[in-house]
């Protein structure tokens, strides 16, 4: 049942108004990140006036002051009035997640959401009417070309890989600990991109051998921008749809299944047909959430060919591919875990 509102809430729809204005909050964060507000605040480590910040960032004081006030309003920055003058300072959230220098920074995710996802959502009415991707209207590419779009130049590829890295920086630990993976000694992360999730597997299960399997362009960039000297994982180039897969007793498909139509998902699952653990965001069976997965499913409609699935839909998909022992474990956060064993 939907939440029953009180008469006062019906008289003035606070929550509804918050939702309606939600896109403005996203754009405030995108803009502050793009301008370098959070980086400057972390670097200075002291309260600054709007005039000082505007001078450092080469913006108008009038516009920046309004942006800073909005960031204070959503608890991302703090402000103190001293002698009638507003002085702005960073918070733990902005320092930890929004400044580029932080190891847990979401700045790459913000950049991708702002430049690639935000414009696409302008075409949501068309996507709902037509039931298909709107990439062609937004960017001049079809859904068939979506997976190739990030690879047209090094800058676009690096932006996409940065977004994937940001995602797994804060989500990887919950995923790899949701189900005991200690019985699996040889692991392949299909489409593992930067290797961030794979490295978390190494940390939690140090005796396993893990390989990231991705296309040559991604592997090259991962080694150049996301690998350390003593990396605990290895990379292998290939195409998991059209080429041979490395041998393993556990295959990870993290955010892979949701990108494709049923037929293509089954093609890949049939090909694996071994111990397999796809990682996806799952819908509740009663269709009442979680909202993260519901919005992500709409995003897949706009951007690609796939969708988010409920546990029963995953069960059907995996049993059709031949898997028998299927476990589902929710993490309570962005991504959940499904383990299918032959």
**Class of secondary structure makeup:** alpha/beta
Kindly provide the radius of gyration, computed on alpha-carbon positions and rounded to a whole number of angstroms: 22 Å
CATH architecture of the largest domain: 3-Layer(aba) Sandwich
Remind me, CATH topology of the largest domain? Rossmann fold
CATH class of the largest domain: Alpha Beta
| Shape by Cα distribution | globular
Q: What is the fourth-level CATH superfamily of the largest domain?
A: Vaccinia Virus protein VP39
Which band does the percent of strand residues land in? Answer: 5-15%
Which oligomeric form is depicted? single chain
Order of helices and strands: HHHHEHHEEHHHHHEHEHEEHEHHEE
**Strand order of the main beta sheet, please?**
6-5-4-7-8-10-9
Plain-language structure description:
This protein has helices spanning 7-11, 14-20, 22-35, 37-44, 50-57, 61-73, 92-98, 107-117, 124-130, 135-139, 154-176, 196-204, 216-225, 262-272, 291-303, 311-320; strands at 48-49, 77-82, 85-90, 186-190, 209-214, 234-237, 250-254, 276-280, 325-329, 336-341. The strands form 2 sheets. A 7-stranded mixed beta sheet has the order 6-5-4-7-8-10-9, with helices on both faces. Strands 1-3-2 form a 3-stranded antiparallel beta sheet. Helix content is 47%, strand content 15%. By secondary structure, it is an alpha/beta fold. It has 16 helices and 10 strands. It folds into 2 domains: 7-98, Arc Repressor Mutant, subunit A (Orthogonal Bundle), CATH 1.10.10.10; 107-341, Rossmann fold, CATH 3.40.50.150. The longest helix has 23 residues, at 154-176.
